[in-house]
Amino acid sequence: MSDDDKVKIVMVESYPSEIASSLSLQSKSYTFAENILKTEGFIPFYEFHTGILTSTQRGFFEEVVSRAPKKMKILLDPLIVSFAIRDACDLSGVEYFWLDLEKNDDVGSSAWIREKDIEKLYETTFHLIASHIGKYLLDAYDRKTREDLERAWLAELRLPECQVCGATVIERKMPPMKFSGETLRGWNCSNCGFQTLIPSDVLELVEVGRVKDLEEK
Fold first, then answer.
1. What is the pTM of this model?
2. CA 194 to CA 15: how far, in whole Å?
3. What's the whole-number mean pLDDT along residues 77-102?
4. 44: burial class by Cβ within 10 Å (0-12, 13-18, 19+)?
5. DSSP 195-216
6. Secondary structure of 107-153 in the HEC alphabet?
7. Please, how many CA atoms are within 13 Å of residue 158, restricted to the half-sphere of its CB?
8. Over residues 52-71, mean pLDDT
9. Residues 6+ positions from 131 with CB-CB distance below 8 Å
10. Which residues of 178-207 are buried (b: 16+ CB within 10 A; e: fewer)?
11. Rounded to whole angstroms, how far apart are CA atoms 25 and 18?
């Protein structure tokens, strides 16, 4: 049995809504859904889960970052991107499948679209992040998570692993980086280069009105 055979689909949404019910994907394995969706002409646009990203999922995230406007890149992480893509699927009016996934204690999601809609989805996703970065941070990271990261920074702790590549070479970034004149504290992974920012610092940046023109190239 492949690893994807162990991933089960716990919820399916689609637009138009009737195409989800016609394929009966809920409670099936992810491998089963992949085969069906490819036959129907859909391709995976983004995949994410709450643990360390697989190489495939990391590829999707890195593709988003590579296309993002320069000012936006530092603020992106896999979870924030997944929230924005979910909204972009709804607001873009494209045909899509959104699968909520589960494997043991790990949860995730996967967005499938038509190839012709790729650029429209990226454009809408970046617009939503630029407009609602504070909302996505609040949705993605509850107060406990934000406070835990703040305490880890103040205690001068290393994070146990990078959420993107799983490496354990993630160090406190000293000195903290500057963005629009504000300080952003975080950790840097020397393996893949991903920077884990303290969400409360980004929220403060939003609240003081310094996050502007994120869609500029």
1. 0.90
2. 33
3. 95
4. middle
5. EEE-HHHHHHHHHTT----TT-
6. EEEEEEECHHHHHHHHHHHHHHHHHHHHHHHHHHCCHHHHHHHHHHH
7. 10
8. 94
9. none
10. ebeebebbbbbbeebebbbbbbbbbbebbe
11. 12
